[in-house]
Design brief:
This protein is mostly beta strands and 266 residues long. The chain is built from four helices and 14 strands.
């Protein structure tokens, strides 16, 4: 865990001291403190017959009314109502405090429309856009991320996050912040030689004990530039999370920018 915290401390300082003119810019955090990191991460809550049945996936706020997640989080789940929980840090406490800072109460907003990619099948095109019932507030704990620009370097270090399973098999109640190195698609496919990987993906991770896992699906894979950008969506990985040499599989958001733009206009 120390390596996660140190890496994020450095990233937080980088974003914190930018002089950004926008009133509500995307991809920036309120400070370097852990409780302020990844304010675009949301938790999906599933409801059925008037009861909450679970919170099994993440998502990423990309604007006041829209969240991007994995298609398998909304196509392979049984629910009759979906809400997003924003501003969460510690799912085990009502008021989250860390390093002398306490967060606002979490915000829950109903999802009114779900747009799974029309060509989604068996992890191919594993992306969906959720439209919210009302605008998400812009606070120190709730902020949108930017969509990706430019190209990736082979040396890119990504940052993933979520509340999924840890190495001990238990789900984390604290928001996990996980630095993951970029892998070439060729090297990634060579490791998963028994499986044909989906198209339009990013591979990242492959280091023992540093990985996304069950419960992190749909969450963000971010690149820290001048502003943080959403490059990937947690989609799949090795059956044993955090196995050495087996990176996680993430939907490549750059391949879907036109579709995302069309959906957000609806």
């Amino acid at each position: 865990m120390k390596c996660y915290i140190l890496a994020f401390f450095a990233f937080g300082l980088f974003v914190l001291f930018l002089n950004l003119p926008d009133e509500k810019p995307c991809g920036v955090t309120a400070s370097w403190r852990l409780i302020h990191q990844d304010p675009w991460l949301v938790l999906l809550e599933y409801h059925r017959e008037g009861r909450r049945t679970g919170a099994r996936c993440g998502g990423t706020l990309v604007g006041p009314r829209h969240v991007i997640t994995a298609a398998h989080c909304v196509r392979n789940a049984f629910f009759d109502r979906l809400t997003v929980r924003l501003g969460e840090y510690d799912t085990a406490s009502k008021i989250d405090c860390s390093e002398g800072v306490c967060s606002d109460k979490v915000v829950r907003i109903n999802v009114t429309e779900i747009f799974a990619h029309p060509d989604y099948v068996d992890k191919q095109n594993d992306i969906a856009v959720l439209k919210l019932e009302k605008d998400a507030p812009y606070t120190d704990f709730i902020r949108p991320v930017c969509l990706p620009t430019g190209t990736l370097s082979p040396r890119t270090l990504f940052l993933a996050s979520g509340w999924g399973q840890q190495a001990n098999g238990l789900y984390s109640h604290i928001k996990k912040l996980i630095p993951l190195p970029n892998w070439s698609i060729e090297d990634c496919q060579a490791m998963y030689k028994q499986t044909k990987l989906p198209d339009k993906i990013i591979c990242a991770g492959g280091e023992r004990g540093m990985d996304t896992c069950r419960g992190d699906s749909g969450g963000p894979l971010v690149v820290m530039k001048r502003r943080s950008e959403l490059w990937g969506i947690t989609s799949a990985g090795h059956v044993h999370c955090g196995s050495q040499g087996y990176p996680g599989i993430y939907t490549n958001v750059t391949m879907f920018l036109d579709w995302i733009g069309d959906v957000i206009k609806i």
